[in-house]
Amino acid sequence: SKKPPVASTVPKAAGNKAKRPAWDLKGRLQDMEELLNRQSSKRDSLESQLQDYNSRIASLESEKNQLYGDVQSKEQIVHGASKQIEEYQKQIREQEANFEQTKRKLQTELDSITFLKESIQRQKESLEGEVSAKTVEVAGLKSTVAELQTSQVVIAAQLDATKISLEQSVSAGREKDKEISELKQMVAAMQDTIEKYKIKEQEHETMRRKLHNTIQELKGNIRVFCRVRPLLGEELLGSDGTINHMAFPDADSKMLELEKMSDAGLNESCLTANRKGNNKYEFAFDKVFNPDSTQGQVFEEICQLVQSALDGYNVCIFAYGQTGSGKTFTMEGPSQFSPEQTGMIPRAVVQIFESTQDLISKGWQYEFEASFLEIYNETIRDLLGNNSDDQKHDIKMTGSADKKDVMVTNLTTVMVTSEDQVHELLRKASHNRAVAETKCNERSSRSHSVFRLKISGVNKHTQEACIGTLNLVDLAGSERLKDSGSEGARLKETQAINKSLSTLSKVIMAIANKDGYIPYRESKLTYLLQNSLGGNSKTLMFVNVSPKEECFQETLNSLRFATKVNQCNIGTAQKKAK
């Protein structure tokens, strides 16, 4: 029998249709459905052919049995049929694989198209919302345009009015420019006048300094103030607070009278010229402060001397008198702070910094260097240091022959910028000195304390420079050795104090007499203060006296020493320049 024709396994291509565009999703979906249907039809056709082939195989098997005799021929037919069957099965497997691949590809494209469709739907809804908003916005813009058109007409009218106003303003501006030009000329002239006034102000400041220091020189280089403290505590018992043996007879507060109320064993051989009768003694000083005088009244008399330190002079203010006469109170104030009773040292610091602020506007710039020490038994102790007994302090001269300066080795010096900083140093020094009192038997009253403030100034406008030193000294109590009843350590203290005070008296007398040799080195006190005691300094001594009648002899001795000092003329002080 003849072999049936072999069906072609290559699917016919779809009709020659043009490729649809990417946005035609519905058309592409229809094409894919048609392709899927054609593939399904081809599969059914192949399955039908397979069934036909199976029937033919059965028929061929029957013919084989019938034509067994023709084995060779039948085997060839069977062999050929088997090959065809294998080929058909292979084609079926390939078609099934192609079908599954095409199905998966189409499914993927379908999912992508579905997702794209949903995205487009969402975009459509969003765009519809935007269109609605834009429609409302357009309606508002149309209304705004109508309003702007109306405003344009108004603005045009205003513009015309503005043009007219501008023309008027331009005309007025020309007049203003002319006025401004005239004012600039006036300002330039005023600036020239201001510069002239500034130069005059600097000249006036220089003249003020000269006149101020001339006045201080006319008052005397060594000035002596006497201060009598009031009766205190138990001293008031048996009296109404009146000091019967003292009198202040003159209205100018320059005289003090002492009257001997009982036998005090006075030494009548010394300075009897100031006796006024058998039992009265009269003393005259630059100023006498009675017991009712306040710290403020006292400082008012010395504030001009403090100003001289800012002007470049060495200034020394020291308090002299017996123990308990009020020296420390005058110089430092009470142990418990009281604004009304503040001493001369803190008041001087306040004045210096206040004056500095006024001088800054005139071009002056200052630096301040502070130190505080005490001299006990001819030994120097640093009151701002750490109280180390191992530190040795010696006095040395530094600088050239015409600009010698005194310095103390290993002494703590502090650069200060405010009065609060200085007050803190004073509190520290007072604390260190108070500690020494408890250890050394009232050592503070048995030692000399010296507060030094070195002042360096320069004027940035005139390049004028100056250096001044303010020495504020609280001397130890002066007592005659035979009257003090001192023994042991107190005897040594009294001898050292009397020696230093005696040397101070010798130095002042030697300077007043213009001696060739001045015994500065005989005492640590005078050696330290030599630049503030000589002819290039201004010196003030407070003689503090006790109001107690039993202290009459010591009071008389103190006043006689102060009288000697007050009679000295040590020459004209010289300003120190850098």
From TrEMBL:
The keyword ATP-binding applies. GO terms for biological process: microtubule-based movement; mitotic spindle assembly. Residues 221-568 form the Kinesin motor domain. ATP binds at residues 321-328. Residues 1-24 are annotated as: Disordered. GO terms for molecular function: ATP binding; microtubule binding; microtubule motor activity. Pfam families: Kinesin. GO terms for cellular component: microtubule. Its main location: cytoplasm. InterPro entries: Kinesin-like_fam, Kinesin_motor_CS, Kinesin_motor_dom, Kinesin_motor_dom_sf, P-loop_NTPase. Residues 29-137, 180-217 form a coiled coil. PROSITE patterns: KINESIN_MOTOR_1, KINESIN_MOTOR_2. Keywords: ATP-binding, Coiled coil, Cytoplasm, Cytoskeleton, Microtubule, Motor protein, Nucleotide-binding. It comes from the Eukaryota. It is found in: Cytoplasm, Cytoskeleton. Belongs to the TRAFAC class myosin-kinesin ATPase superfamily. Kinesin family. KIN-14 subfamily. This is Kinesin-like protein. It comes from Magallana gigas. The lineage of its organism: Eukaryota, Metazoa, Spiralia, Lophotrochozoa, Mollusca.
